[in-house]
């Protein structure tokens, strides 16, 4: 009986250690850590212009392993999430539209989410332009993450902008494309 209990505790300990290491928040130092970012404004060194800040944001997001909104166990907002909140209000609509075509999937998704929440943005066109985009990313909240494809994500995040017939047509396109990747 004692060896069963010891085995159980050993397995439980290993499980907890695996869970903790999987949820480890390895946010490295940011490329834009020297920039003071507040909820109101950005105070940047004079040597950086808008194009450089956008390039730095894109580069920083490419170093992230997916999109992580909250830290494991604490629910605390991640640095990446805070950067997104700041960037989504600071960047212009044209800058965000350009970033939806970034080579970096994380940047592309974050730019789309920022645009989706703005008025006077043609979300339909953005989604339709990305129906063929099968690039993937992982979206994480705490320890729970989901593997997603850009085309599916953009469509599902903007379902209210389309008619039922468009949704069905677009889902069929996305489904066929994504199923080819698994065969």
Can you tell me about this structure?
With 183 residues, the chain is mainly α. The protein has helices at residues 2-22, 50-62, 79-90, 93-99, 105-116, 123-129, 150-157, 164-182, and strands spanning 36-37, 42-43, 67-70, 136-141, 144-149. The strands form two sheets. A three-stranded mixed β-sheet has the order 3-4-5. A two-stranded antiparallel ribbon has the order 1-2. The longest helix has 21 residues, at 2-22.
What gyration radius follows from the Cα positions, in whole Å? 20 Å
Q: Helical percent range? A: 40-55%
Q: Largest beta sheet, briefly? A: 3 strands, mixed
Distance between the termini: 48 Å
Averaging pLDDT over every residue, what do you get?
76
Give the uncertain stretches in residue-range form: 17-34
Oligomer state of the chains in this structure: single chain
- The shape, in one word, is globular
Beta content comes to: 5-15%
Strand order of the largest sheet: 3-4-5
Report the structural category. mainly alpha
Order of helices and strands: HEEHEHHHHEEHH
The number of helices is 8
Provide a brief overview of the structure.
The protein is mainly alpha-helical and 183 residues long. The protein has helices at 2-22, 50-62, 79-90, 93-99, 105-116, 123-129, 150-157, 164-182; strands at 36-37, 42-43, 67-70, 136-141, 144-149.
């Amino acid at each position: 009986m004692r060896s069963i209990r010891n085995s159980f505790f050993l397995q439980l300990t290993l499980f907890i250690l695996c869970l903790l290491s999987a949820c480890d928040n390895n946010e490295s130092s940011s490329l834009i850590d020297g920039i003071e970012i507040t909820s109101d404004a950005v105070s940047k060194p004079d040597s950086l212009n808008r194009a450089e800040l956008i390039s730095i944001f894109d580069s920083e997001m490419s170093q992230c392993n997916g999109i992580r909104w909250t830290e494991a166990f604490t629910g605390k907002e991640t640095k990446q999430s805070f950067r997104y909140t700041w960037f989504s209000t600071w960047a212009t609509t044209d800058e965000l539209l350009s970033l939806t075509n970034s080579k970096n999937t994380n940047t592309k998704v974050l730019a789309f989410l920022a645009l989706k929440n703005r008025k006077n943005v043609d979300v339909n066109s953005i989604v339709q332009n990305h129906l063929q985009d099968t690039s993937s990313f992982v979206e994480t909240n705490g320890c729970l993450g989901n593997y997603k494809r850009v085309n599916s994500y953009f469509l599902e995040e903007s379902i209210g902008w389309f008619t039922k017939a468009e949704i069905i047509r677009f889902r069929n396109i996305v489904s066929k494309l994504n199923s080819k990747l698994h065969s």
